[in-house]
Structures are given as C-alpha cells and as structure tokens.
Amino acid sequence: MASKHLAALAILAILLPAVAMATEFTVGDDQGWTINFDYEAWAKDKVFHVGDKLVFKYTAGRHNVFKVNGTAFTNCAIPPANEALTTGNDVITLATPGRKWYICGVNDHCANYGQKLAITVLEAWVSPASAPSTPAASAPSTPAASAPSTPAAPAPSTPAAPAPSSAYGISVSGYQLLMAAMVAVAFLVV
Questions:
Q1: For labelling, which of 3, 11, 73, 75 has a CA lying 20 to 30 Å from the CA of 167?
Q2: 68 pairs with which residues across the strands?
Q3: Radius of gyration of the chain from Cα atoms?
C-alpha cells in the first residue's frame, strides 16, 4: 500500500510542475501605464502566452487603454470612446496567439509620448521556462496591416516559431493532466 502512495506522489510530482500557470504582467511594472515610458523595451525580454494577463495600472481619467490592430497602432488612430478601458486597473486576459497592440487614447499620449504597447502572444505551453526568451525575434517587427475602419477588429497575425512544450518535448494537455491526476488518486484510494 505504501508503494502505491509513493507511486501516486511520484506521478503528481512529475506532472504538476509541468503545468503552465498564467502569468500576470503589470504593464510598465512600477511605472504603470503612463507617458514617456519605453514599452518596447519593457516587453522585449518577456514571453507572453495564451492565458496570461496584462494589467494596465494608471490614474483613472488621466489615461485609458484601447486594444487596436496594427494599422491603428502605427498611426495612433483612436477608436470610438465607448471601446476604451478606463478603470485605472484594466485586466486583459490574452486569449489568442499572435500580435496584440494597445494604445492610450487620451490627447496625444500615443503619438507624441509613446504610450503604446505591442506584444507577441505564444500558444499556452506546458512549461513557461522552456519558451524562447525573445519571441518577437521570430515574428515580423512591423504590425500587420488591416482596414483602418475597423481598428478594434483582430488583425491578422503571424504565429511565432514553436517552442518545445516542456523540457522533455512532451505536451501535456489539461485533459491528460486530469487523467494522470485521476490515476494518481485511484492509486491512493486502492
């Protein structure tokens, strides 16, 4: 019976560290979402995956956040005001892979003060530590073009080069992990 417990614990010890946990990124770290900050440099060494969250922190009323396409990002084209996030603690969950663009629509914060962020989001991987440290290097650096009349519509994206899903090159889906956990629990019960 003790050997079954040890086997179950060994299975869990191997599988649980491989599960990708969503990361929460505070955009601009301690500076937050503000003017005169280099968001390109901030994002450069970060790896973003589907499921991660971006938190835009700022004083409500002084800034806002718009999710835009590549053309709107390049031109600092401000979408309609009703599309703005304005709480000062806006959380965006990255739901799909590809390029993502965000701008501030207050005054000329985007065009003249650099308050804009472009990132590349990778698929959700089992082991965040195994993802490449510079995902932007494998994606085009120029934003994808799309019709300026629909700046809030998702822009076409070029997926980043695939990274191994774990240190062992084994992908573990949520279903597979659930099944492994059930097997481990079954060992404990028997």
A1: 3
A2: 101
A3: 20
Do the beta carbons of residue 117 and residue 71 sit within 8 Å? no
pLDDT digits (tens, 9 = 90+) for 65-101: 999 999 999 999 999 999 999 999 999 999 999 999 9
- φ, ψ dihedrals at 26, nearest 5°: -85, 110
Helices 174-189 + 2-15 axis angle, to 10? 160
* Banded pLDDT at 176 (limits 50, 70, 90): very low
Which residues pair with residue 67 across a beta bridge? 102
**pLDDT higher than 80, residue 134:** no
CA angle (97, 103, 104) in 5-degree steps: 150
- 54: helix, strand or coil: strand
Q: Which tokens belong to 127?
A: 């082991």
Q: Which two tokens stand for residue 166?
A: 């774990």
Q: Which pair of structure tokens corresponds to residue 111?
A: 């065009």
Identity at 121, one-letter amino acid code = V
